[in-house]
Design goal:
By secondary structure, the protein is α/β, with parallel strands linked by helices. Helix content is 35%, strand content 15%. An eight-stranded parallel beta barrel has the order 5-6-7-8-9-10-11-12, surrounded by seven helices.
């Protein structure tokens, strides 16, 4: 739409798209609103829109994705979560244990997370474990503890849903729905999250290409939820010195194509405590919008992912380091 297009002109275009039997996605940007059209099988004749009042141009998108692209929205998306955000000027830090294990554990970690100035607390209540006999998470009891953490510390809660029922529950207690690596191509779950009012943190699949990952984000957005945060968490390679290979090149690669914010998970990306800080620093240096970090008050007692958990002290030091790096790599505001 033209920069000076009115609400009414925008609404008229949305109506025409709907009347053609397609879905319209209005995405307001800094200077103008773009309206994406999905649901068409083949090419749509641009003359349907071109001469409507307020329309600047009608562009045919030939790429497999439409909504995630910079063509649609040239400026970065800032995902707002209450008074916190991911993708804005501030480095987003999402920290907490792999799994919520008890109220005492969650509160001990949350205390340190709050003290560090981070705005987001992570912790799984539903855990996707490789073995069915491993700790599966506390379920709804875990979500209740997370809701208490939110209340006590004002932290925004990021927690995983494994299925549609999990999304219902996460919506009731938390602020951001995490979709895990193992579910990145669970298309019905992606669609369900796409109908949620909560933002989605979408982890890259264990062996997903960039296109597969971006198309998974497209699934969520195609249902009308445009608040998607991408998370690079490492992919499986032949390397045996790490749990996964953290693909930091994914950050600039995503930036070149998409307006969505990207965070880096050096915990699952490496699997080893000693590697988390260096890779977290590198993630920020490479331009990530944030980090998701596993922290535990007693890593040796953790019920999952203890080997990669930072101690509270290590975490505190890391936050100081990454903030300093973020300042160096973030361009100063114009005139500032
Ligand atoms: C997690 O964040 O605890 C987790 C299970 O992550 P991933 O889906 O990346 O393995
Ligand atoms: Mn974990």
């Amino acid at each position: 739409m033209k920069a000076d297009a009115t609400e009414r002109e925008i609404d008229d275009v949305l109506r025409v798209v709907k009347e053609l039997g397609f879905r319209a996605h209005p995405l307001p940007g800094a200077t103008r609103t773009a309206i994406a059209v999905t649901g068409n099988q083949g090419a749509v004749d641009p003359s349907h829109f071109e001469n409507l009042p307020g329309v600047a141009e009608s562009i045919r998108v030939t790429k497999p994705y439409k909504l995630i692209t910079l063509d649609l929205r040239p400026e970065k998306t800032v995902v707002r979560v209450g008074d916190a955000c991911v993708g804005g000027d501030e480095l987003a830090i999402i920290a907490g244990p792999c799994a919520v294990e008890s109220r005492a554990q969650a509160f001990a970690v949350a205390e340190a997370v709050r003290r560090s100035g981070a705005r987001f607390f992570r912790g799984g209540a539903f855990k996707p474990r490789t073995s069915p006999y491993a700790f599966q998470g506390l379920g709804e009891e875990g979500l209740k503890i997370l809701a208490e953490v939110r209340e006590a510390y004002g932290l925004k809660i990021v927690t995983e849903a494994l299925d549609d029922h999990g999304v219902d529950m996460v919506e009731r207690y938390a602020d951001v729905i995490q979709l895990g690596a193992r579910n990145m191509q669970n298309f019905s779950l992606l669609r369900r999250a796409g109908r949620s009012p909560l933002p989605v943190l979408l982890k890259r699949g264990l062996s997903a290409t960039l296109d597969e990952w971006l198309l998974a984000a497209e699934y969520v957005m195609s249902e009308g939820n445009y608040n998607v945060i991408l998370c690079e968490r490492g992919i499986r390679t032949f390397a045996q010195h790490t749990r996964n290979t953290l693909d930091l090149s994914a950050v600039p690669a995503v930036r070149r194509i998409s307006h969505l914010p990207v965070v880096v998970d050096p915990s699952h990306g490496t699997g080893h405590n000693y590697m988390v800080a260096p890779l977290a620093r590198a993630g920020v240096a490479v331009g990530a919008d944030g980090l998701i970090i596993e922290v535990h008050d007693q890593p040796e007692r953790a019920l999952s992912d203890g080997a990669q958990a930072l101690t509270l002290e290590q975490y505190e030091q890391l936050v100081a380091d990454v903030r300093a790096i973020h300042e160096v790599v973030t361009p100063a505001p114009v005139g500032g």
